[in-house]
């Protein structure tokens, strides 16, 4: 009985370890993404006013004015660097990357991780952007916009279940998150789930323009997936042809090595005209 009990304990311990390992490698859980950063130092009233004014200018699409306003703040304030990075990213300026990177070891690390991920996604470097956005969501799991960005990466990597999870989470966290609803609609149209797509359109009150944009994105994803599959099939076809060719060549080579050498018959007088050995032509 004691042996049986020890065996059961060992099995349960192994099963428990397996469960923990599955959690750490889950696409839905962020249980092993590193340490949390420290909290930000409170700003004084003047700095707070400058930041608020810049955000209002940014909301009015006065990007250059917002950037100029932020120049009034010291560079050692993380919030100032974040505001500049956002504006420069919208303007397509390369300086945004270094500003986001400067936030990685600060109280605004989540925003830095998100910003770098957004820059990589804009360059269609989805695999590289994924760990940055996962880290951002780990640091701020209730940030619906970070969840949406992570879903966008998953969708472009054709990880459909993970993408749906992130878009749904973003919408449930903030039912006014229109980009997440549009991206979820894109996913449903990509999967050709027309009934579910129609239900989402009616429930979220999406406009005709938003629906058209979602359809265009879904068609683009379908075309890119078809292209990737065609390229993969082409590579596999070439590999199979090469494998067949190599396999067919092996018996011939083996026969050549295995064939015994037949000595030429002795001749009493050489024939001078045929004294030069002709090369043997390989059969085509």
Task: Summarize this structure briefly.
Helix content is 69%, strand content 0%. With 284 residues, it is an all-alpha fold.
Entry keywords:
mainly alpha; 12 helices; globular; 0% strand
Tell me about this structure.
With 284 residues, the protein is mostly helical. The chain has helices at residues 2-24, 45-59, 63-70, 78-90, 95-101, 109-122, 126-139, 144-156, 160-173, 178-190, 194-204, 208-258. α4 packs antiparallel against α5 (95-101), α5 (95-101) packs antiparallel against α6 and α10 crosses α12.
Helix and strand topology:
Layout: H1 2-24, H2 45-59, H3 63-70, H4 78-90, H5 95-101, H6 109-122, H7 126-139, H8 144-156, H9 160-173, H10 178-190, H11 194-204, H12 208-258
Helix content: 55-70%
- Uncertain segments are 6-21, 266-284
Strand content: under 5%
Q: How many helices does DSSP assign? A: 12
Whole-number mean pLDDT: 84
Radius of gyration: 32 Å
Structural class: mainly alpha
Can you count the beta strands? 0
**Morphology call:** globular
Could you give the distance between the termini? 75 Å
Order of helices and strands: HHHHHHHHHHHH
Largest sheet: none
